[in-house]
UniProtKB/TrEMBL annotation:
<dbReference type="InterPro" id="IPR018378">
    <property type="entry name" value="C-type_lectin_CS"/>
</dbReference>
<dbReference type="InterPro" id="IPR016187">
    <property type="entry name" value="CTDL_fold"/>
</dbReference>
<dbReference type="InterPro" id="IPR001304">
    <property type="entry name" value="C-type_lectin-like"/>
</dbReference>
<dbReference type="Pfam" id="PF00059">
    <property type="entry name" value="Lectin_C"/>
</dbReference>
<keyword id="KW-0732">Signal</keyword>
<feature type="signal peptide">
    <location>
        <begin position="1"/>
        <end position="17"/>
    </location>
</feature>
<protein>
    <submittedName>
        <fullName>PRG3 protein</fullName>
    </submittedName>
</protein>
<dbReference type="InterPro" id="IPR016186">
    <property type="entry name" value="C-type_lectin-like/link_sf"/>
</dbReference>
<feature type="domain" description="C-type lectin">
    <location>
        <begin position="51"/>
        <end position="150"/>
    </location>
</feature>
<keyword id="KW-1015">Disulfide bond</keyword>
Amino acid sequence: MWPCLLLALALLGAVPASHPGCQAVPVPQRHCREVPVGTGECLVPARAIPQRYCQDVYRGQLASVHSAARNQELQKLARTYTIVAPWIGAVTSRRAGQWESRWEDSSPWNYANWAPVHPSHIVTTCTTLSTRDGLWRSRFCFQLRPFICQY
């Protein structure tokens, strides 16, 4: 059985109906600090929000993907709530002179579904799952996006 998944909608302003066995919630404002102009946008490092939220609220992690079936399940879940590609738990970074992708939950890297020309090998990047085509894309980790927790 798959762990329950949570799609958290960061700063999208609406909370849709729950997915069976899961729950969609907005990121609490305590994780954000207000912009001086008073717009209420988040200025904290965006990647820290989903990581901490998954850990603190659900004692979980950002989702890792180990099969095409799991990838499709997550894509379908994400598409139910948003058109914005959500974060999943993959990071690509340079280690010991080599670029590598890894799961933040330390599970084995045994499946990948990268879009052409991804992952990027310029700087450390985080990974999104496209709701449109299910492919993964490298993105700068400071972007504010929805995210998928597993717990």
